[in-house]
């Protein structure tokens, strides 16, 4: 990569870090969730289980997936994520790895999670996270260990409520600038083919983010999705198709200044 391109990408990374709200250390949602405005605190999606670990408690199958997010058509800003979920009765285990950036600036994340169904209406989960942030030259490399946890409540057959916390470490004990995040939201099954919901996210030192989205099964095993996120005034849409045990999802999200971010996910499920 030429020096000019390095400088351009570095400036863009700086711009994103200044203008972006929310928590930049959280890996991007999967394409299905991204198509719904990144609303994923109560959904049954594969990647949602790593955004609210309580969802693992109601997972009943072994599955693995990979996701690629292409931010604004710039490969140096791409995020690659892989994960695996292992079901065991009323408890499921999850493993996830994510890589963002390019050789001169990259951020990697690895996590091990566990979710358990405490009853037919309540599930809880926790995840241990390890972050590594590396830059070229004489800059320091950061390594951070933290955790996150979630709760899922099902008050009725059609309504689901989720709560999630990330890095809930008191300021007096912190040794890094890793922000804390609290999310809460609810989803409702409006019909057998339509699911919709909304969530709110608050990260330390940032503005409140609101997200809303829907998923509509237009045809058997074919979904249409749409959503909105107040973060960067982003409108989203996407599609998904299930062929036997393989699910393919695509999504697109707008940015008020920088253009379009696309995502693609491939998920393999073994019952």
Which key features would you list for this structure?
271 residues; Porin; 2 helices; 8% helix; 57% strand
Description:
The longest helix is centred in the N-terminal third of the chain and has 17 residues. This protein is mainly β and 271 residues long. The chain is globular. It has a single domain, classed as Outer membrane protein transport protein (OMPP1/FadL/TodX) (Porin, Beta Barrel), CATH 2.40.160. 8% of the residues lie in helices and 57% in strands.
What is the structure about, briefly put?
With 271 residues, the protein is mainly β.
Secondary structure tally: strands: 14
Looking at CATH, the homologous superfamily is Outer membrane protein transport protein (OMPP1/FadL/TodX)
Strand content range: over 45%
- What would you report as the Rg, rounded to the nearest angstrom? 18 Å
Q: Helical segment tally?
A: 2
Largest sheet strand order? 1-2-3-4-5-6-7-8-9-10-11-12-13-14
Proportion of helical residues: under 10%
Largest sheet: 14 strands, antiparallel, barrel
Tell me what the CATH architecture is. Answer: Beta Barrel
Distance between the termini: 44 Å
Q: For this entry, what is the oligomeric state of its chains?
A: single chain
- CATH top level is Mainly Beta
Q: Which stretches are low in confidence, meaning pLDDT under 50 for 5 or more residues running?
A: 3-21
List the helices and strands and how they pair.
Blueprint: H1 3-19, H2 31-34, E1 62-71, E2 79-88, E3 91-102, E4 105-117, E5 122-135, E6 142-156, E7 159-166, E8 181-191, E9 194-203, E10 209-219, E11 222-229, E12 234-243, E13 246-255, E14 259-270
Antiparallel strand pairs: 1-2, 1-14, 2-3, 3-4, 4-5, 5-6, 6-7, 7-8, 8-9, 9-10, 10-11, 11-12, 12-13, 13-14
């Amino acid at each position: 990569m030429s020096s000019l391109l390095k400088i351009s990408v570095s400036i863009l990374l700086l711009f994103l870090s200044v203008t972006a709200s929310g928590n930049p250390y959280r890996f991007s949602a999967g394409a299905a969730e991204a198509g719904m405005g990144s609303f994923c605190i109560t959904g049954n999606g594969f990647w949602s289980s790593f955004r609210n670990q309580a969802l693992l408690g109601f997972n009943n199958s072994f599955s693995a997936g990979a996701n690629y997010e292409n931010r604004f058509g710039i490969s140096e800003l791409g995020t690659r994520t892989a994960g695996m979920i292992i079901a065991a009765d009323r408890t499921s285990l999850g493993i996830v790895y994510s890589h963002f950036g390019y050789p001169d600036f990259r951020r990697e994340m690895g996590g091990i999670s566990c979710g358990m169904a405490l009853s037919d209406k309540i599930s809880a989960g926790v995840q241990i996270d390890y972050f590594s942030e590396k830059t070229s030259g004489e800059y320091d490399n950061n390594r951070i260990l933290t955790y996150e946890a979630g709760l899922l409540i099902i008050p009725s057959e059609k309504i689901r409520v989720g709560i999630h916390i990330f890095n809930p470490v008191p300021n007096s004990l912190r040794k890094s600038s890793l922000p804390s995040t609290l999310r809460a939201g609810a989803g409702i099954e409006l019909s057998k083919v339509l699911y919709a919901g909304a969530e709110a996210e608050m990260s330390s030192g940032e503005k409140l983010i609101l997200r809303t989205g829907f998923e509509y099964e237009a045809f058997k095993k074919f979904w249409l999705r749409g959503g909105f996120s107040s973060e960067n005034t982003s409108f989203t849409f996407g599609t998904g198709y299930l062929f036997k045990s393989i699910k393919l999802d695509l999504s697109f999200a707008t940015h008020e200044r920088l253009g379009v971010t696309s995502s693609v996910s491939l998920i393999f499920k073994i019952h």
